[in-house]
Amino acid sequence: PAALSLSGIERTYMQGESALHVLRGIDLDLPAGEIVGLVGPSGAGKSTLLHVAGLLEHPDQGTVFVGGTDATQMDDGARTALRRRHIGFVYQFHHLLPEFTALENVVLPQLIAGLPRKEAESRAGELLGFLGLADRTVHRPGELSGGEQQRVAIARAVANAPRILLADEPTGNLDPDTAEHVFDILLRLVHGTGLAALIATHNLEFASRMDRRVTLKEGRLVEL
Ligand code: ADP
Ligand code: ADP
């Protein structure tokens, strides 16, 4: 089965008295190893789609399959466990824990997943090294540049070796050169690990380097 599969996803928000039908029947198959760019203007529903795909938000209708398992039928505990095991999420803002070092931020999700500290630290060190942060592991987020912070956030997202990586404008808060660098390293990481990835970006040049591009038009997913 696809790493991630969405079928008939509908999502409506109430804004006061009016209903905003943001997702109107989304179908998407994301096979292992494929990187899909999610492009489109602000307000199109990209974040909503990523949140539903990432099991952070419930669809009103439709099914989210993670590795062939229907996550929408699970209770909250099982769904959270499935998310932690199989899905990594990168946001526009890093959301790192400010009191913890870069290494500890990458270790923590692994400890929560039940890995022994020694193994977690070893994997965190390797990941940060791959992302060019070997000499920044003991720094706290406040002591890191924006690009470094975002690379730590990427390391954290893949710390538990998820099958699926979801990213919502992962370089949207960075200057163009830094964005380029972080995006390159993100693509290299994803290609090297065989992850399935869905990456929202405003940057069409970045999107052109992914395997496939989709956009949201009036709540429906259209291939570009
Ligand atoms: P994008 O990520 O493409 O900018 P979003 O998914 O964030 O789009 O938002 C799509 C639309 O849904 C926007 O009009 C936004 O204001 C609205 N929206 C998103 N989340 C909520 C929410 N929790 N409550 C009400 N409206 C929301
Ligand atoms: P993005 O830059 O990803 O499009 P937004 O600014 O649209 O982000 O949304 C940021 C967060 O706020 C998202 O989690 C989204 O679901 C939520 N949100 C967006 N619009 C609204 C809204 N009108 N009411 C409540 N929450 C919203």
From TrEMBL:
Domain of life per record: Bacteria
SMART domains in the record: AAA
Residues annotated as domain ABC transporter: 4-224
Alphabetical list of InterPro entries matching this protein: AAA+_ATPase (IPR003593), ABC_transporter-like_ATP-bd (IPR003439), ABC_transporter-like_CS (IPR017871), ABC_transpr_LolD-like (IPR015854), MacB-like_ATP-bd (IPR017911), P-loop_NTPase (IPR027417)
Keywords noted in UniProt: ATP-binding, Cell inner membrane, Cell membrane, Membrane, Nucleotide-binding, Translocase, Transport
GO molecular function terms noted in the UniProt entry: ATP binding; ATP hydrolysis activity; transmembrane transporter activity
Keyword Cell membrane: yes
GO biological process: lipoprotein localization to outer membrane; protein localization to outer membrane
Residue stretches in coiled coil: none
Gene Ontology cellular component list: membrane protein complex; plasma membrane
Transmembrane feature ranges: none
Sequence similarity: Belongs to the ABC transporter superfamily. Macrolide exporter (TC 3.A.1.122) family.
Protein name: ABC transporter ATP-binding protein
